[in-house]
From TrEMBL:
It comes from Saccharothrix carnea. PANTHER family: ALPHA-AMYLASE FAMILY MEMBER (PTHR10357), NEUTRAL AND BASIC AMINO ACID TRANSPORT PROTEIN RBAT (PTHR10357:SF179). It comes from the Bacteria. GO terms for biological process: oligosaccharide catabolic process. GO terms for molecular function: alpha-amylase activity. InterPro entries: DUF3459, GH, GH13_cat_dom, O16G_dom_2. Residues 16-410 form the Glycosyl hydrolase family 13 catalytic domain. This is Alpha-glucosidase. SMART domains: Aamy. The lineage of its organism: Bacteria, Bacillati, Actinomycetota, Actinomycetes, Pseudonocardiales. Pfam families: Alpha-amylase, DUF3459. Belongs to the glycosyl hydrolase 13 family.
Amino acid sequence: MDSPDRPWWRGAVIYQIYPRSFADSNGDGTGDLNGVRDRLPHLRDLGVDAIWFTPWYASPLADGGYDVADYRAIDPAFGTLADAEALIADAAAMGIRTIVDVVPNHVSSEHAWFKAALAAGPGSPERERFWFREGRGEHGELPPTDWVSSFAGGTWTRVPDGQWYLHLFAPEQPDLNWNHPDVRREHEDVLRFWFDRGVAGIRVDSASMPVKDPALPEVPRTYEAGGHPFIDRDELHDIYRGWRAVADSYAEPRVLVGEIWLDDQQRFARYLRPDEMHSAFNFDFMGRPWEAKQLRESIQSTLDAHAPVGAPPTWVLSNHDVTRPVTRYGREDSSFSFATKRFGTPTDPGLGERRARAAALLTAALPGALYVYQGDELGLPEVEDLPLEALQDPMHFRSGRTDPGRDGCRVPLPWTRSGHSFGFSPDGSGAPAWLPQPAAGWGERSVEVQYRDPRSMLTLYRTALALRRSEPGLRGERFSWLDSTEDVLAFARDDVVCVVNLGAAPVPLPDHHEVLLTSVDLDGDHLPADAAAWLRA
Protein backbone atom coordinates (compact mmCIF):
# COMPACT_ATOMS: atom_id res chain seq x y z
CA MET A 1 0.00 0.00 0.00
CA ASP A 2 1.39 3.39 -1.05
CA SER A 3 1.48 6.48 1.13
CA PRO A 4 3.48 9.74 1.05
CA ASP A 5 5.79 8.52 3.81
CA ARG A 6 6.04 4.92 2.59
CA PRO A 7 6.20 4.52 -1.19
CA TRP A 8 4.98 1.21 -2.60
CA TRP A 9 8.41 -0.08 -3.55
CA ARG A 10 9.76 -0.07 0.02
CA GLY A 11 7.76 -3.16 0.97
CA ALA A 12 6.56 -4.53 -2.36
CA VAL A 13 6.28 -8.15 -3.42
CA ILE A 14 7.75 -8.23 -6.93
CA TYR A 15 7.31 -11.29 -9.15
CA GLN A 16 9.97 -11.97 -11.76
CA ILE A 17 8.77 -13.11 -15.18
CA TYR A 18 11.10 -14.77 -17.68
CA PRO A 19 8.83 -14.26 -20.73
CA ARG A 20 9.98 -17.25 -22.78
CA SER A 21 8.95 -19.62 -20.01
CA PHE A 22 5.86 -18.14 -18.35
CA ALA A 23 2.93 -18.80 -20.71
CA ASP A 24 2.54 -19.29 -24.47
CA SER A 25 -0.65 -17.86 -25.99
CA ASN A 26 -0.18 -18.73 -29.67
CA GLY A 27 1.08 -22.31 -29.51
CA ASP A 28 4.56 -21.80 -30.93
CA GLY A 29 6.26 -23.20 -27.82
CA THR A 30 7.65 -19.84 -26.66
CA GLY A 31 6.12 -17.76 -23.88
CA ASP A 32 4.78 -14.37 -24.91
CA LEU A 33 3.20 -11.21 -23.55
CA ASN A 34 -0.37 -12.22 -24.33
CA GLY A 35 0.31 -15.41 -22.39
CA VAL A 36 1.21 -13.24 -19.40
CA ARG A 37 -1.97 -11.20 -19.90
CA ASP A 38 -4.01 -14.41 -19.84
CA ARG A 39 -2.37 -15.48 -16.56
CA LEU A 40 -2.55 -12.16 -14.70
CA PRO A 41 -5.30 -13.54 -12.42
CA HIS A 42 -2.74 -16.01 -11.05
CA LEU A 43 -0.48 -13.12 -10.06
CA ARG A 44 -3.36 -11.12 -8.62
CA ASP A 45 -4.46 -14.10 -6.51
CA LEU A 46 -0.87 -14.76 -5.46
CA GLY A 47 -0.79 -11.25 -4.02
CA VAL A 48 2.05 -9.51 -5.84
CA ASP A 49 2.45 -5.74 -6.11
CA ALA A 50 4.57 -5.63 -9.24
CA ILE A 51 5.95 -7.81 -12.01
CA TRP A 52 9.49 -7.52 -13.30
CA PHE A 53 10.19 -8.70 -16.83
CA THR A 54 13.58 -9.88 -17.98
CA PRO A 55 14.25 -8.35 -21.43
CA TRP A 56 11.34 -8.53 -23.84
CA TYR A 57 13.05 -6.46 -26.51
CA ALA A 58 14.06 -7.38 -30.05
CA SER A 59 17.03 -9.70 -29.67
CA PRO A 60 18.84 -12.59 -31.39
CA LEU A 61 18.62 -14.32 -27.97
CA ALA A 62 22.31 -15.15 -27.79
CA ASP A 63 21.97 -14.61 -24.03
CA GLY A 64 18.29 -15.04 -23.29
CA GLY A 65 17.41 -11.50 -24.39
CA TYR A 66 20.21 -9.72 -22.53
CA ASP A 67 21.67 -9.01 -25.97
CA VAL A 68 19.30 -6.19 -26.92
CA ALA A 69 19.06 -5.19 -30.58
CA ASP A 70 16.36 -2.52 -30.16
CA TYR A 71 15.02 -1.15 -26.86
CA ARG A 72 11.99 0.37 -28.53
CA ALA A 73 10.72 -2.83 -30.11
CA ILE A 74 9.32 -6.03 -28.59
CA ASP A 75 10.88 -9.21 -29.88
CA PRO A 76 8.42 -10.78 -32.38
CA ALA A 77 8.58 -14.06 -30.44
CA PHE A 78 6.95 -12.23 -27.52
CA GLY A 79 4.51 -10.00 -29.40
CA THR A 80 4.35 -6.33 -30.30
CA LEU A 81 4.75 -2.95 -28.65
CA ALA A 82 0.94 -2.74 -28.58
CA ASP A 83 0.87 -6.04 -26.68
CA ALA A 84 3.32 -4.65 -24.12
CA GLU A 85 1.26 -1.50 -23.66
CA ALA A 86 -1.92 -3.56 -23.22
CA LEU A 87 -0.17 -5.80 -20.70
CA ILE A 88 1.07 -2.83 -18.67
CA ALA A 89 -2.46 -1.42 -18.64
CA ASP A 90 -4.15 -4.74 -17.80
CA ALA A 91 -1.74 -5.34 -14.92
CA ALA A 92 -2.26 -1.81 -13.60
CA ALA A 93 -6.02 -2.36 -13.62
CA MET A 94 -5.42 -5.27 -11.23
CA GLY A 95 -3.19 -3.14 -9.00
CA ILE A 96 0.04 -4.65 -10.35
CA ARG A 97 2.86 -2.38 -11.49
CA THR A 98 5.39 -3.27 -14.20
CA ILE A 99 9.19 -3.14 -14.04
CA VAL A 100 11.37 -3.79 -17.11
CA ASP A 101 15.04 -4.54 -17.60
CA VAL A 102 17.64 -2.19 -19.07
CA VAL A 103 21.13 -3.49 -19.84
CA PRO A 104 23.55 -0.53 -19.88
CA ASN A 105 26.79 -2.47 -20.15
CA HIS A 106 26.27 -3.76 -23.67
CA VAL A 107 23.98 -4.20 -26.64
CA SER A 108 23.55 -6.96 -29.20
CA SER A 109 25.99 -7.36 -32.05
CA GLU A 110 22.84 -6.94 -34.18
CA HIS A 111 22.16 -3.48 -32.74
CA ALA A 112 22.17 -0.73 -35.40
CA TRP A 113 25.02 1.08 -33.66
CA PHE A 114 27.31 -1.95 -33.68
CA LYS A 115 26.55 -2.84 -37.29
CA ALA A 116 27.34 0.76 -38.23
CA ALA A 117 30.60 0.56 -36.27
CA LEU A 118 31.69 -2.57 -38.11
CA ALA A 119 30.87 -1.00 -41.44
CA ALA A 120 32.58 2.34 -40.68
CA GLY A 121 35.99 0.90 -39.87
CA PRO A 122 38.88 1.89 -37.57
CA GLY A 123 39.03 5.43 -36.28
CA SER A 124 35.41 6.20 -37.14
CA PRO A 125 33.00 8.08 -34.85
CA GLU A 126 30.73 5.02 -34.93
CA ARG A 127 33.41 2.88 -33.28
CA GLU A 128 33.89 5.38 -30.48
CA ARG A 129 30.57 4.24 -28.96
CA PHE A 130 32.22 0.87 -28.24
CA TRP A 131 35.65 -0.35 -27.13
CA PHE A 132 37.53 -1.05 -30.36
CA ARG A 133 41.29 -1.39 -29.97
CA GLU A 134 44.34 -2.63 -31.81
CA GLY A 135 45.70 -5.94 -30.62
CA ARG A 136 49.01 -6.69 -28.98
CA GLY A 137 51.82 -8.62 -30.59
CA GLU A 138 53.85 -8.04 -33.73
CA HIS A 139 50.79 -8.22 -35.97
CA GLY A 140 48.07 -7.33 -33.48
CA GLU A 141 47.22 -11.00 -33.14
CA LEU A 142 46.83 -10.90 -29.37
CA PRO A 143 43.83 -9.35 -27.59
CA PRO A 144 44.35 -5.92 -25.98
CA THR A 145 44.00 -7.34 -22.43
CA ASP A 146 43.76 -10.69 -20.67
CA TRP A 147 40.50 -9.84 -18.95
CA VAL A 148 38.25 -12.83 -18.24
CA SER A 149 34.60 -12.90 -19.32
CA SER A 150 31.71 -13.34 -16.89
CA PHE A 151 30.83 -16.29 -19.12
CA ALA A 152 34.40 -17.73 -18.99
CA GLY A 153 36.98 -17.30 -21.72
CA GLY A 154 38.30 -14.06 -23.14
CA THR A 155 36.65 -10.67 -23.47
CA TRP A 156 37.85 -9.61 -26.92
CA THR A 157 36.86 -10.64 -30.44
CA ARG A 158 38.79 -9.66 -33.57
CA VAL A 159 36.99 -8.28 -36.61
CA PRO A 160 38.14 -8.69 -40.25
CA ASP A 161 39.93 -5.30 -40.39
CA GLY A 162 42.20 -6.43 -37.53
CA GLN A 163 40.80 -4.47 -34.59
CA TRP A 164 39.35 -6.10 -31.51
CA TYR A 165 36.16 -5.18 -29.62
CA LEU A 166 35.43 -5.67 -25.92
CA HIS A 167 32.65 -7.86 -24.54
CA LEU A 168 32.61 -8.68 -20.83
CA PHE A 169 29.96 -11.32 -21.57
CA ALA A 170 29.43 -13.17 -24.88
CA PRO A 171 30.94 -12.02 -28.22
CA GLU A 172 27.39 -11.22 -29.33
CA GLN A 173 27.24 -8.57 -26.54
CA PRO A 174 29.70 -5.75 -27.36
CA ASP A 175 30.33 -3.39 -24.45
CA LEU A 176 29.31 0.25 -24.77
CA ASN A 177 31.70 3.12 -24.10
CA TRP A 178 30.01 5.19 -21.40
CA ASN A 179 32.51 8.01 -21.91
CA HIS A 180 30.63 8.80 -25.13
CA PRO A 181 27.74 11.28 -24.80
CA ASP A 182 25.59 9.36 -27.30
CA VAL A 183 25.52 6.36 -24.96
CA ARG A 184 24.32 8.33 -21.97
CA ARG A 185 21.77 10.32 -23.97
CA GLU A 186 20.36 7.21 -25.63
CA HIS A 187 19.81 5.35 -22.36
CA GLU A 188 18.05 8.30 -20.74
CA ASP A 189 15.78 8.45 -23.80
CA VAL A 190 15.06 4.72 -23.44
CA LEU A 191 14.04 5.26 -19.81
CA ARG A 192 11.61 7.97 -20.88
CA PHE A 193 10.25 5.78 -23.69
CA TRP A 194 9.14 3.11 -21.23
CA PHE A 195 8.17 5.42 -18.39
CA ASP A 196 5.88 7.23 -20.82
CA ARG A 197 4.16 3.90 -21.50
CA GLY A 198 3.32 3.36 -17.86
CA VAL A 199 6.29 1.32 -16.66
CA ALA A 200 6.73 1.91 -12.92
CA GLY A 201 10.41 1.07 -12.70
CA ILE A 202 13.61 -0.11 -14.30
CA ARG A 203 15.80 -2.97 -13.16
CA VAL A 204 19.40 -2.15 -14.10
CA ASP A 205 21.32 -5.22 -15.25
CA SER A 206 25.00 -5.63 -14.25
CA ALA A 207 24.80 -2.15 -12.79
CA SER A 208 28.36 -2.06 -11.44
CA MET A 209 30.04 -2.86 -14.78
CA PRO A 210 29.32 -0.29 -17.55
CA VAL A 211 32.20 2.15 -16.91
CA LYS A 212 35.76 1.13 -17.81
CA ASP A 213 39.15 2.65 -17.10
CA PRO A 214 39.99 4.23 -20.50
CA ALA A 215 43.57 2.99 -20.20
CA LEU A 216 42.27 -0.61 -20.15
CA PRO A 217 44.87 -1.90 -17.68
CA GLU A 218 45.07 -5.52 -16.64
CA VAL A 219 43.14 -6.45 -13.51
CA PRO A 220 45.60 -6.02 -10.63
CA ARG A 221 45.98 -8.68 -7.98
CA THR A 222 45.02 -6.09 -5.34
CA TYR A 223 43.47 -2.69 -5.80
CA GLU A 224 41.94 0.18 -3.86
CA ALA A 225 38.16 0.60 -3.66
CA GLY A 226 36.96 1.84 -7.04
CA GLY A 227 40.24 0.82 -8.64
CA HIS A 228 39.09 -2.20 -10.63
CA PRO A 229 39.31 -1.48 -14.37
CA PHE A 230 35.70 -2.43 -15.10
CA ILE A 231 33.79 -3.08 -11.87
CA ASP A 232 32.38 -0.47 -9.45
CA ARG A 233 34.08 2.55 -10.99
CA ASP A 234 33.31 5.83 -9.23
CA GLU A 235 32.15 7.41 -12.49
CA LEU A 236 29.07 5.18 -12.44
CA HIS A 237 27.38 7.28 -9.78
CA ASP A 238 27.09 10.33 -11.99
CA ILE A 239 25.33 8.17 -14.60
CA TYR A 240 22.78 6.90 -12.13
CA ARG A 241 22.19 10.38 -10.73
CA GLY A 242 21.17 11.32 -14.25
CA TRP A 243 18.83 8.33 -14.40
CA ARG A 244 17.34 9.26 -11.02
CA ALA A 245 16.62 12.75 -12.31
CA VAL A 246 14.68 11.20 -15.20
CA ALA A 247 12.78 8.88 -12.84
CA ASP A 248 11.92 11.74 -10.46
CA SER A 249 10.62 13.94 -13.26
CA TYR A 250 7.32 12.03 -13.42
CA ALA A 251 4.23 12.88 -11.39
CA GLU A 252 4.48 9.41 -9.84
CA PRO A 253 8.25 9.01 -9.56
CA ARG A 254 9.57 5.88 -11.21
CA VAL A 255 11.84 3.38 -9.45
CA LEU A 256 15.40 2.22 -10.19
CA VAL A 257 16.51 -1.22 -8.97
CA GLY A 258 20.14 -2.23 -9.38
CA GLU A 259 21.67 -5.63 -10.00
CA ILE A 260 24.81 -5.02 -7.98
CA TRP A 261 27.18 -7.88 -7.13
CA LEU A 262 29.67 -6.40 -4.64
CA ASP A 263 31.24 -7.88 -1.53
CA ASP A 264 32.04 -4.45 -0.07
CA GLN A 265 28.83 -3.40 1.70
CA GLN A 266 29.89 0.25 1.97
CA ARG A 267 30.58 0.43 -1.76
CA PHE A 268 27.26 -1.34 -2.38
CA ALA A 269 25.37 1.25 -0.31
CA ARG A 270 26.80 4.12 -2.38
CA TYR A 271 24.47 3.11 -5.23
CA LEU A 272 21.48 3.56 -2.90
CA ARG A 273 22.08 7.12 -1.81
CA PRO A 274 18.95 9.31 -2.00
CA ASP A 275 19.84 10.72 -5.44
CA GLU A 276 20.75 7.40 -7.07
CA MET A 277 18.92 4.04 -7.09
CA HIS A 278 15.96 3.25 -4.89
CA SER A 279 16.97 -0.33 -4.10
CA ALA A 280 19.24 -3.16 -5.20
CA PHE A 281 19.19 -6.93 -5.25
CA ASN A 282 20.59 -8.72 -2.21
CA PHE A 283 22.72 -11.45 -3.70
CA ASP A 284 24.65 -12.14 -0.51
CA PHE A 285 21.56 -13.59 1.18
CA MET A 286 20.62 -15.66 -1.89
CA GLY A 287 24.05 -17.28 -2.02
CA ARG A 288 24.31 -18.27 1.65
CA PRO A 289 23.93 -21.89 2.78
CA TRP A 290 21.06 -23.14 4.94
CA GLU A 291 22.86 -22.40 8.20
CA ALA A 292 21.52 -20.18 10.98
CA LYS A 293 24.80 -18.39 11.65
CA GLN A 294 25.35 -17.61 7.97
CA LEU A 295 21.82 -16.40 7.34
CA ARG A 296 21.75 -14.28 10.49
CA GLU A 297 25.04 -12.70 9.50
CA SER A 298 23.71 -11.94 6.02
CA ILE A 299 20.44 -10.47 7.33
CA GLN A 300 22.22 -8.23 9.82
CA SER A 301 24.89 -7.06 7.38
CA THR A 302 22.17 -6.29 4.83
CA LEU A 303 20.20 -4.21 7.32
CA ASP A 304 23.38 -2.47 8.44
CA ALA A 305 24.39 -1.63 4.85
CA HIS A 306 21.01 -0.12 3.96
CA ALA A 307 20.40 1.85 7.17
CA PRO A 308 22.86 4.74 6.58
CA VAL A 309 21.33 5.58 3.19
CA GLY A 310 17.72 4.95 4.20
CA ALA A 311 17.11 2.42 1.44
CA PRO A 312 14.93 -0.66 1.95
CA PRO A 313 16.66 -4.05 1.78
CA THR A 314 15.53 -6.65 -0.71
CA TRP A 315 15.23 -10.40 -0.26
CA VAL A 316 15.26 -13.06 -2.93
CA LEU A 317 15.82 -16.82 -2.98
CA SER A 318 16.49 -17.28 -6.69
CA ASN A 319 16.19 -15.81 -10.17
CA HIS A 320 16.65 -16.79 -13.81
CA ASP A 321 20.40 -17.31 -13.26
CA VAL A 322 20.43 -19.30 -10.02
CA THR A 323 19.75 -22.92 -9.06
CA ARG A 324 16.22 -23.16 -7.67
CA PRO A 325 15.86 -23.32 -3.86
CA VAL A 326 14.12 -26.72 -3.79
CA THR A 327 17.21 -28.24 -5.42
CA ARG A 328 19.89 -26.05 -3.85
CA TYR A 329 18.73 -26.49 -0.26
CA GLY A 330 18.72 -30.27 -0.63
CA ARG A 331 22.46 -30.41 -1.26
CA GLU A 332 25.30 -31.03 1.12
CA ASP A 333 26.61 -27.59 0.14
CA SER A 334 23.42 -25.52 0.02
CA SER A 335 25.15 -22.25 -0.87
CA PHE A 336 25.19 -20.91 -4.42
CA SER A 337 28.16 -19.97 -6.56
CA PHE A 338 28.47 -19.81 -10.33
CA ALA A 339 32.00 -21.17 -10.05
CA THR A 340 30.88 -24.44 -8.46
CA LYS A 341 27.93 -25.38 -10.68
CA ARG A 342 28.54 -28.83 -12.14
CA PHE A 343 26.58 -31.68 -13.64
CA GLY A 344 25.59 -34.54 -11.36
CA THR A 345 25.61 -32.73 -8.02
CA PRO A 346 23.38 -34.86 -5.74
CA THR A 347 20.38 -33.41 -3.93
CA ASP A 348 17.67 -34.60 -1.54
CA PRO A 349 14.40 -33.30 -3.06
CA GLY A 350 12.32 -33.84 0.09
CA LEU A 351 14.79 -32.01 2.31
CA GLY A 352 15.17 -29.26 -0.28
CA GLU A 353 11.42 -28.66 -0.48
CA ARG A 354 11.06 -28.62 3.30
CA ARG A 355 13.81 -26.02 3.62
CA ALA A 356 12.47 -23.99 0.68
CA ARG A 357 9.10 -23.74 2.44
CA ALA A 358 10.80 -22.47 5.57
CA ALA A 359 12.94 -20.08 3.56
CA ALA A 360 9.82 -18.67 1.90
CA LEU A 361 8.41 -17.70 5.30
CA LEU A 362 11.77 -16.35 6.46
CA THR A 363 12.17 -14.00 3.49
CA ALA A 364 8.51 -12.92 3.49
CA ALA A 365 8.80 -11.91 7.16
CA LEU A 366 11.84 -9.67 6.71
CA PRO A 367 11.46 -5.88 6.31
CA GLY A 368 11.84 -4.48 2.80
CA ALA A 369 10.94 -5.70 -0.67
CA LEU A 370 10.49 -9.37 -1.56
CA TYR A 371 11.25 -10.81 -5.01
CA VAL A 372 9.73 -14.12 -6.13
CA TYR A 373 11.05 -15.85 -9.24
CA GLN A 374 8.37 -17.47 -11.37
CA GLY A 375 7.81 -21.10 -10.39
CA ASP A 376 9.28 -20.81 -6.90
CA GLU A 377 5.72 -20.36 -5.65
CA LEU A 378 5.09 -23.83 -7.11
CA GLY A 379 8.19 -25.36 -5.54
CA LEU A 380 9.64 -26.21 -8.94
CA PRO A 381 12.98 -27.99 -8.80
CA GLU A 382 15.94 -27.26 -11.03
CA VAL A 383 15.62 -29.43 -14.15
CA GLU A 384 19.03 -31.07 -14.19
CA ASP A 385 18.51 -33.79 -16.78
CA LEU A 386 17.83 -31.65 -19.84
CA PRO A 387 19.18 -33.31 -23.00
CA LEU A 388 22.58 -31.87 -23.82
CA GLU A 389 21.37 -30.96 -27.29
CA ALA A 390 18.59 -28.85 -25.73
CA LEU A 391 20.93 -26.60 -23.73
CA GLN A 392 21.13 -23.02 -25.00
CA ASP A 393 22.87 -21.00 -22.29
CA PRO A 394 26.24 -19.48 -23.31
CA MET A 395 27.59 -20.15 -19.81
CA HIS A 396 27.45 -23.86 -20.65
CA PHE A 397 29.27 -23.57 -23.96
CA ARG A 398 31.91 -21.05 -22.86
CA SER A 399 32.79 -23.19 -19.83
CA GLY A 400 33.89 -26.00 -22.10
CA ARG A 401 30.53 -27.69 -21.33
CA THR A 402 31.49 -28.35 -17.70
CA ASP A 403 28.94 -25.86 -16.30
CA PRO A 404 25.34 -27.03 -16.90
CA GLY A 405 24.37 -23.39 -17.38
CA ARG A 406 21.16 -21.68 -16.36
CA ASP A 407 18.60 -23.45 -18.54
CA GLY A 408 17.51 -25.73 -15.69
CA CYS A 409 15.76 -22.87 -13.87
CA ARG A 410 14.22 -21.55 -17.09
CA VAL A 411 12.09 -24.56 -18.07
CA PRO A 412 8.51 -23.48 -18.98
CA LEU A 413 5.99 -23.47 -16.15
CA PRO A 414 3.30 -26.14 -15.64
CA TRP A 415 -0.21 -24.68 -15.45
CA THR A 416 -2.26 -27.87 -15.72
CA ARG A 417 -1.87 -31.46 -14.58
CA SER A 418 -1.82 -32.88 -18.11
CA GLY A 419 -1.45 -31.88 -21.75
CA HIS A 420 1.55 -31.98 -24.02
CA SER A 421 3.04 -28.90 -22.32
CA PHE A 422 1.10 -28.93 -19.02
CA GLY A 423 -0.92 -25.88 -20.06
CA PHE A 424 2.10 -23.78 -21.00
CA SER A 425 0.80 -23.70 -24.60
CA PRO A 426 -2.86 -23.84 -25.68
CA ASP A 427 -4.59 -27.21 -26.01
CA GLY A 428 -4.15 -28.63 -29.48
CA SER A 429 -0.96 -26.77 -30.29
CA GLY A 430 1.71 -29.06 -31.65
CA ALA A 431 4.90 -27.12 -31.04
CA PRO A 432 7.01 -28.41 -28.14
CA ALA A 433 8.06 -26.01 -25.38
CA TRP A 434 11.31 -24.22 -26.24
CA LEU A 435 12.98 -26.13 -23.40
CA PRO A 436 11.68 -29.64 -22.69
CA GLN A 437 9.61 -30.06 -19.54
CA PRO A 438 10.07 -33.17 -17.38
CA ALA A 439 7.55 -35.88 -18.17
CA ALA A 440 7.46 -37.11 -14.57
CA GLY A 441 6.13 -34.94 -11.77
CA TRP A 442 5.87 -31.63 -13.63
CA GLY A 443 2.09 -31.73 -13.89
CA GLU A 444 1.73 -32.56 -10.20
CA ARG A 445 3.43 -29.25 -9.41
CA SER A 446 1.10 -27.29 -11.70
CA VAL A 447 -1.03 -24.34 -10.66
CA GLU A 448 -4.14 -26.44 -11.34
CA VAL A 449 -3.10 -29.13 -8.88
CA GLN A 450 -1.76 -26.82 -6.17
CA TYR A 451 -4.44 -24.13 -6.28
CA ARG A 452 -6.92 -25.90 -3.98
CA ASP A 453 -4.45 -28.03 -2.04
CA PRO A 454 -4.17 -26.51 1.45
CA ARG A 455 -0.74 -28.09 1.94
CA SER A 456 0.81 -27.02 -1.36
CA MET A 457 3.69 -24.63 -1.86
CA LEU A 458 1.36 -22.33 -3.80
CA THR A 459 -1.09 -22.16 -0.89
CA LEU A 460 1.80 -21.42 1.49
CA TYR A 461 2.95 -18.51 -0.69
CA ARG A 462 -0.57 -17.13 -1.16
CA THR A 463 -1.25 -17.28 2.57
CA ALA A 464 2.09 -15.73 3.49
CA LEU A 465 1.72 -12.86 1.04
CA ALA A 466 -1.83 -12.17 2.21
CA LEU A 467 -0.65 -12.00 5.82
CA ARG A 468 2.31 -9.85 4.83
CA ARG A 469 -0.19 -7.36 3.40
CA SER A 470 -2.78 -7.53 6.18
CA GLU A 471 -0.61 -7.65 9.32
CA PRO A 472 0.46 -4.12 10.36
CA GLY A 473 3.69 -5.44 11.87
CA LEU A 474 4.74 -6.99 8.57
CA ARG A 475 3.91 -3.84 6.61
CA GLY A 476 6.27 -1.66 8.59
CA GLU A 477 10.07 -1.67 8.80
CA ARG A 478 10.68 -2.39 12.48
CA PHE A 479 12.90 -5.38 13.19
CA SER A 480 14.53 -6.82 16.30
CA TRP A 481 16.33 -10.08 16.98
CA LEU A 482 15.03 -12.30 19.77
CA ASP A 483 17.12 -14.57 21.96
CA SER A 484 17.48 -18.03 20.47
CA THR A 485 19.77 -21.03 20.29
CA GLU A 486 22.54 -21.14 17.70
CA ASP A 487 20.48 -23.18 15.20
CA VAL A 488 17.42 -20.94 15.39
CA LEU A 489 16.62 -17.57 13.87
CA ALA A 490 13.99 -15.59 15.79
CA PHE A 491 12.96 -12.00 15.29
CA ALA A 492 10.03 -9.68 15.92
CA ARG A 493 8.21 -7.30 13.62
CA ASP A 494 6.09 -5.43 16.17
CA ASP A 495 3.67 -8.11 17.44
CA VAL A 496 4.56 -10.69 14.75
CA VAL A 497 7.36 -13.13 15.54
CA CYS A 498 9.14 -15.28 12.96
CA VAL A 499 10.98 -18.38 14.17
CA VAL A 500 13.05 -20.59 11.85
CA ASN A 501 14.59 -23.85 13.05
CA LEU A 502 17.64 -24.74 10.99
CA GLY A 503 18.79 -27.43 13.42
CA ALA A 504 18.29 -31.19 13.44
CA ALA A 505 15.82 -31.45 16.36
CA PRO A 506 12.49 -29.78 17.24
CA VAL A 507 12.68 -26.66 19.39
CA PRO A 508 10.04 -25.17 21.72
CA LEU A 509 8.09 -22.21 20.39
CA PRO A 510 8.48 -18.94 22.27
CA ASP A 511 5.52 -17.60 24.23
CA HIS A 512 2.77 -16.47 21.88
CA HIS A 513 -0.97 -15.82 21.66
CA GLU A 514 -1.62 -17.21 18.18
CA VAL A 515 0.00 -19.27 15.45
CA LEU A 516 -0.45 -17.35 12.20
CA LEU A 517 1.30 -19.68 9.74
CA THR A 518 3.77 -22.56 9.71
CA SER A 519 5.76 -24.14 6.89
CA VAL A 520 4.98 -27.66 8.22
CA ASP A 521 2.74 -29.07 10.93
CA LEU A 522 3.92 -28.32 14.45
CA ASP A 523 5.07 -31.06 16.78
CA GLY A 524 2.83 -30.10 19.69
CA ASP A 525 4.29 -26.86 21.00
CA HIS A 526 7.59 -27.50 19.21
CA LEU A 527 8.81 -26.34 15.81
CA PRO A 528 10.27 -29.27 13.82
CA ALA A 529 13.64 -29.20 12.11
CA ASP A 530 13.95 -27.18 8.88
CA ALA A 531 10.70 -25.36 9.53
CA ALA A 532 9.42 -21.85 10.12
CA ALA A 533 6.50 -20.32 12.01
CA TRP A 534 4.84 -16.93 12.22
CA LEU A 535 3.39 -16.19 15.65
CA ARG A 536 1.49 -13.37 17.26
CA ALA A 537 3.32 -12.40 20.41
